[in-house]
């Protein structure tokens, strides 16, 4: 595993972060209600690999399901990261939107593997159908 430090932000720049991750590990897409509607493609890291460089006051926290916080920028609405603590999935984590990384090499992003999960049915270790995967 070769981690690299990336910077990321929302669209307007009010939310900024730094994250250490290995793009070769790829990111996850899922068909649960929020991932599907936001076309989420994200990589999960341990909290100490994520540094928020802006004030949390720039975001509104969206915590509808009581499991994962999905703060979004109050100004532009972009949702650069989420965080939570799911013991069955390894404990505390931060999930970073790969599309919000600013200094990432396009080729490296194109080669990053995509892992699909059937979150809608709480069946996290299996992929949704090919038709569903096509629009995640
Ligand atoms: Zn913004």
UniProtKB/TrEMBL annotation:
MF annotations from Gene Ontology: carbon-sulfur lyase activity; metal ion binding
Coiled-coil ranges from the UniProt annotation: none
| Gene3D superfamilies assigned to the protein according to its UniProt record, in alphabetical order | 2.170.150.70
Query: Family assignment?
Result: Belongs to the Gfa family.
* PANTHER family in alphabetical order: CENP-V_GFA DOMAIN-CONTAINING PROTEIN, CENTROMERE PROTEIN V
Q: Which residues form the CENP-V/GFA domain?
A: 6-123
Span of the signal peptide: none
Q: Please identify the protein, giving its name as recorded.
A: Uncharacterized conserved protein
In this record, what's one Pfam family? GFA
Q: What is the lineage of its organism?
A: Bacteria, Pseudomonadati, Pseudomonadota, Gammaproteobacteria, Lysobacterales
InterPro entries, sorted: CENP-V-like, CENP-V/GFA, Mss4-like_sf
Alphabetized UniProt keyword annotations: Metal-binding, Zinc
């Amino acid at each position: 595993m070769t981690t690299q430090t990336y910077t990321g932000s929302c669209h307007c720049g009010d939310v900024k972060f730094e994250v250490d991750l290995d793009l070769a590990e790829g990111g996850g897409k899922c068909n649960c209600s929020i991932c599907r509607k936001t076309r989420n493609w994200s990589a999960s890291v341990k909290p100490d690999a994520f540094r928020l460089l802006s004030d949390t006051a720039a975001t509104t926290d969206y915590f509808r399901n009581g499991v994962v916080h999905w703060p979004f920028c109050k100004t532009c609405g972009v949702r650069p990261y989420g965080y939570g603590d799911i013991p069955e999935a390894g404990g505390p984590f931060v999930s970073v939107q790969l599309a919000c990384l600013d200094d990432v090499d396009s080729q490296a992003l194109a080669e990053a593997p995509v892992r699909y999960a059937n979150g809608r049915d709480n069946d996290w270790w299996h992929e949704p159908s090919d038709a569903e995967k096509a629009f995640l």
